[in-house]
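Risk register update: the risk of archive-format incompatibility is retired. Evidence:
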Amino acid sequence: MGKRLFSDDFVRSWIREQNPWWDKRPYPFAELPKQRRLFVNLFTNGIIDDQTVKPWVLLGGRKVGKTTLLKYLVQDLLATQTAGATQLFYLNLNNPVVSGIPIAELIGLALDEAHKGKQERVYFMLDQAEYLSDWPNQLRQLPLEYPAIKLVLGSVVDAARIQQDSQPVEYQTFLLPPPTFHEFVYLRGAEKESFRKLEELGENYIAEPEVLFKKVRLPKLNQLFIQYLNFGGLLELYPSLTTIGPDQTTPLRDMLAVHLLASDLPAIYGIADTRTLNHFFASLAYISGNETSVEELANNFSMAKNTIRKYLVWLEACHLIKLVERVDMDGKRFDRANFFKIYLVNPTLRSALFHDVAEDDLFAGSVVETAVFAQLLHRTQNLPYYSSWSRGSVDLVRLGANKKPNFALEIKWSNQFVEKPTLLKNLRAFCKRNELSEAYITTLDIRKDRRRNDMVYKFVPAAFFAYLLGRNMVYTKMQFTDTVKMPKSST
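Archived output:
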């Protein structure tokens, strides 16, 4: 920790200002967005229902709404009478006032100011914990001194991943992603334009998606999907998309993207050359969806392999990229993961760093693949894999409880295989090898089933598939575990 800058009395006064609900001053909740992100209730209900003292860590990239989510949590804890006003503490750890103060000492000052004892049940929301690079170590010591507090940290950086501690502290992780495509449609108020009588379905898991597909207005949904690729990952853009349109919004998006990447955090975690790091990230954004290896990246960037590994760990810990693991043709994981695929967690950054995606762009397919994976990459378990072998590959593979493949998907932004599914030789070979009787392929705008010999090829529009993944995740906490059903063919 650094040197303390302020006296205890000054810090306690600042703490009181941070928590206006203690003094029944006007609550800051009027400043919160009236329309909540769809992940908010999953998070706040999870903490309200959790009677243990195990800490929660809210992880997510910059500008995805973590601070807003923590303040919603305060609002909901009060509204449900789970806690009284002076049992709730919100503190921003990036403020200079708390610089140099360990978490345990800061908690002690806050409890003293609120006249609370160490044994009382209280909730601490500690925002921007990434500015304490050793927060996992500090978490380990807290239960001994404060056995009754419920601690909720918000952080851009998964510091525990970077430190790889041999004795990791136990905490509950909630990973907040950039907006999913379903959220983009919902928050833009565009569901009524995209679906006929969607209100009949309510907030339900779509177990039989053909019911929903019959209601879809696919041209509108595809139009929104292209907007999502170009603007949907940045919440601040949503009002301007409604009022002035994408053309005037592009400069704002590009400015926000630069701000998203410009940060003093790498230096805190031991990366001094941020210029090279940002150049490296931009290059990865350009090849999002491609298979690569540490050795290939080291050769391409003329960097040491250890530097490449350090950059990859950092970018993944900051939720900018996700490395997707490879399995072989039998669905078996490799002892040495030499090869992997890199995906942007936020597909909008691809457009912001380079140029907008149009429906007929030659490279749109890789951006669509990135977007489909982005609907899944915020899961903390049951992540998808991809498969590749000497003569072929499959874009997305899921392994069942028995570690055997039970789902295979090729992500396309084209209708070219609908009439000739047998051209998908790699997909067929993988399915035959693993005794899968059906496989999925995304398309531009066609929904059909094609039976060839003993295989069923299920073609589903990519936009609808992405929408369905996000919707079912939110409304059922689905972890992509058992079944993924697609609409039955209309032909």
